[in-house]
């Protein structure tokens, strides 16, 4: 097994095209064609984590946060980032960062937070835009079923809990083959009329090359007529943050104490209590101040996130409680998610959960 095989599994869990534009995800250090010796999963790649990988004979570190975020210009070990990269390269250890690709995955970071809190009726808080595409193509009537099947197998035609979704209408296609053409139907120089089916299917944008490959491999025409458009529709299954409900409403102070215990945090910083029970809970692991208004619009009683600044607590506006549980604390269970996912996929290599607590913040 090579490192690229693990990457393929990780991309099935969280396609890199889900990541935010500002992010730096994927294989940051190393050669994907290296034989795998083992995988170490961490939230942050520090020098101590590279040491841990060496001790455990793991030559791939799967890190939630990317150790390299902006460009590095020098490699002389003056910063912790340079030292980590140099140590990894010296010891033939690859580093893969998954970050916002996993944040935006339905079964990712925020689903894991909801899981810890036992929330039901989970929905994406900020569904992503521009991730759904539509293919329209025209195929001879007798090939229509075969082509639909090939497109479905390539990942097209899934809408929520339904697959094999398509729309088809029949009509007549026309074409005239030029001298240089090599037509599969019709004669050169004569306009040919063919009973055709117009097929429309949607697909997620990261499946585009697979869908087009299926189209060209299955369609019998020399020149395949097709269009791809990007839909304005938001994708309810990809996006930042999540909102869900407690099965039983809780007193707000009890709830804050509950999250302090669940996330083992030294401190929950929160806005004023509102004297009403908590039932609807919005969550966004990591720095989530940008989603305060989304949490309000979703009707959440509380928004659990991290890295809130002084003035941002005013944005609660007596509509909900803002609760900052700490950045590391909010994302800590992500490690377990990646480990249990990889262990299900890979049984013959060690998949190790890092024992290093990489939280740079301490509490008195
Ligand atoms: Zn983070």
Structural topology:
Layout: H1 3-13, E1 26-29, E2 39-42, H2 47-55, E3 60-63, H3 80-90, E4 94-97, H4 99-103, H5 109-117, E5 120-128, E6 132-140, H6 144-153, E7 167-176, E8 191-204, H7 208-218, E9 226-230, E10 235-250, H8 252-262, E11 269-270, E12 278-287, H9 292-297, E13 302-306, H10 310-314, E14 321-324, H11 327-331, H12 334-345, E15 351-353
Helix pairs in contact: 1-12, 6-7
This protein binds zinc ion.
Our measurement of the CA-to-CA distance between the termini, rounded to an integer number of angstroms, reads 46 Å
* Largest sheet entry: 6 strands, mixed
Radius of gyration: 25 Å
What strand line-up does the widest sheet have? 5-10-12-13-14-11
> Can you tell me the overall shape?
globular
- Output the CATH homologous superfamily of the largest domain: NIF3 (NGG1p interacting factor 3)-like
Structural class: alpha/beta
The average pLDDT is 96
CATH class of the largest domain: Alpha Beta
């Amino acid at each position: 097994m090579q490192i690229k095989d693990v990457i393929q599994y990780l991309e099935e869990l969280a396609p890199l095209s889900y990541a935010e534009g500002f992010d730096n995800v994927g294989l940051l250090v190393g050669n994907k064609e290296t034989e795998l010796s083992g995988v170490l999963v961490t939230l942050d790649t520090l020098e101590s984590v590279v040491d841990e990988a060496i001790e455990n004979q793991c030559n791939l570190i799967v890190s939630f946060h990317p150790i390299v975020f902006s460009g590095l210009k020098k490699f002389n070990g003056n910063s912790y980032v340079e030292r980590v990269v140099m140590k990894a390269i010296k010891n033939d250890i690859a580093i893969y960062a998954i970050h916002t690709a996993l944040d935006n995955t339905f079964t990712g970071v925020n689903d894991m937070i909801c899981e810890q809190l036992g929330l039901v009726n989970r929905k994406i808080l900020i569904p992503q835009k521009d991730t759904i595409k539509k293919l329209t193509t025209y195929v001879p009537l007798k090939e229509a079923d075969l082509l639909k099947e090939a497109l479905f197998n390539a990942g097209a035609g899934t809408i929520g809990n339904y697959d094999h979704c398509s729309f088809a209408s029949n009509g007549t296609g026309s074409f005239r083959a030029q001298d240089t053409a090599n037509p599969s139907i019709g004669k050169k120089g004569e306009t040919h009329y063919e009973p055709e089916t117009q097929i429309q299917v949607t697909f997620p944008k990261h499946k585009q090359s697979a869908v087009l490959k299926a189209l060209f491999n299955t369609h019998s025409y020399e020149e395949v007529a097709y269009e791809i458009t990007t839909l304005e529709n938001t994708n309810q299954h990809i996006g930042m943050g999540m909102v869900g409900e407690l099965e039983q409403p809780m007193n707000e102070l009890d709830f804050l104490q509950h999250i302090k215990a669940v996330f083992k945090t030294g401190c929950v910083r929160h806005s004023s209590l509102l004297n009403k029970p908590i039932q609807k809970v919005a969550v966004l692991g990591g720095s989530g101040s940008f989603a305060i208004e989304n949490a309000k619009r979703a009707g959440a009683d509380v928004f659990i996130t991290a890295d809130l600044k002084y003035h941002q607590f005013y944005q609660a506006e007596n509509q909900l409680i803002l609760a900052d549980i700490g950045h590391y604390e909010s994302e800590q269970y992500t490690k377990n998610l990646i480990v249990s996912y990889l262990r299900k996929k890979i049984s013959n290599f060690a998949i190790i959960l890092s024992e290093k607590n990489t939280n740079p913040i301490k509490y008195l």
